[in-house]
Amino acid sequence: MKRARVIPVLLVRGSGLYKSVRFGQEKYVGDPINAIRVFNEKEVDELIILDVLATEERRGPRLDDVRDWASECFMPVCYGGGVTTLDEMERLFQAGVEKVALNAAAAENPELVREAARAFGSQSVIAAVDVRKGWFGGHHVVTHRGRKKLAESPAGYVMRLRDLGAGEILLQSVDRDGTGTGYDLELVRDIVHRVDVPVVAIGGAGEVRHLREALAAGASAVAAGSMFVFHGKHRAVLITYPDAETLASLTLAEGDGPRATD
Predict the structure, then answer these.
(1) Assign residue 199 a region: left if phi > 0, alpha if psi is -120 to 50, beta otherwise?
(2) Where are the alpha helices (DSSP H) in the chain?
(3) pTM over 0.85
(4) How many CB atoms lie within 10 A of CB 244?
(5) How far apart are CA 7 and CA 104, in angstroms?
(6) In a 10 Å sphere around its CB, with 0-12 CB exposed, 13-18 middle and 19+ buried, how is residue 144 labelled?
(7) What residue ranges define each of the domains in the chain, with the CATH number in brackets?
(8) CB 225, CB 11: distance < 8 Å
(9) pLDDT for 136 beyond 90
(10) What amino acid positions are annotated as catalytic residues?
(11) SS3 state at 159
């Protein structure tokens, strides 16, 4: 048995840290550096930092900010937001991040995924895939904070990104984002059986049992935002993380992991 990765996700707008609900209703929750320092004390596995305005503002990563955040982190960091070129990725790695998440750029320029995997290794290239349920059932991929819909199915899109060289899939349920109602397990089950790379489930975690459910559904790791920054029904800001005993119970069976059947 091996313990599963449990990954906090920080959403930044400018110099502030925010949390959203279904990619809207964003609430300010503090300073990213303060949150990072608390997570250092709690010895988190990894940290994902996403700049939610970069693509909308058509700009690249704020490298000075990324460098400041990464310099404070005692854990591996994945950064996403506004990355569109190999040069930007190289500068991010130089700034101290270990992985770069590609979302809109992967949809608009899929060859960037292939080029990045060749240049930096697949283990450093994460495909961030946002998925929303349709009005008449099924799922579809969206980009640009949910405003653009792709014609390709989630399964087909994820498999294509894997074939291009993405070493990990960050699978986000837009409908569950910030709700605390649990992950979209149907979506997780569908995707993890399609690809032989790790799938990180994100969107909907509100309690530890939700983490267990996603892992049981086949996710290689679980990520969450609200669960680790809010406390109680009034959503008071409090940076938290499961204790050592709880983390030890979140295990993957030996031999379990990425597998593809289609």
Answers:
(1) beta
(2) 32-41, 63-72, 86-95, 104-108, 111-120, 154-164, 185-192, 208-216, 226-229, 244-249
(3) yes
(4) 9
(5) 22
(6) middle
(7) 2-240 (3.20.20.70)
(8) yes
(9) no
(10) 130
(11) helix
> Which residue's entry shows tokens 């790791």?
221
Nearest to 257 by CA among 211, 184, 171, 199: 199
| DSSP code, position 62 | -
Using an 8 Å Cβ cutoff, are 239 and 228 in contact?
A: yes
What average pLDDT does this structure show over 14-23? Answer: 87
236 pLDDT tier (thresholds 50, 70, 90): confident
- For 110-120, b/e burial (b = at least 16 CB within 10 A) is bebbbbbbeeb
Q: In this structure, what token pair is assigned to residue 7?
A: 């990954």
Do 48 and 39 touch, CB atoms closer than 8 A? no
How far is the C-alpha of 234 from the C-alpha of 194, rounded, in Å?
A: 39
Residue 79: how many other CB atoms lie within 10 Å: 29
38-75 per-residue burial string, b: 16 or more CB within 10 A, e: under 16? bbeebebbbbbbbbbbbbeeeebbbeebbbbbbebbeb
Which amino acid appears at position 28 of this protein? Y
Q: Which of 178, 187, 77 is nearest to 141 (CA)?
A: 187
- Letter for the amino acid at 177? D
Residue 230 tokens read as 């809010």
Of the candidates 166, 168, 162, 141, the residue with the CA atom closest to the CA atom of residue 152 = 141
Beta bridge partners of 132: 140
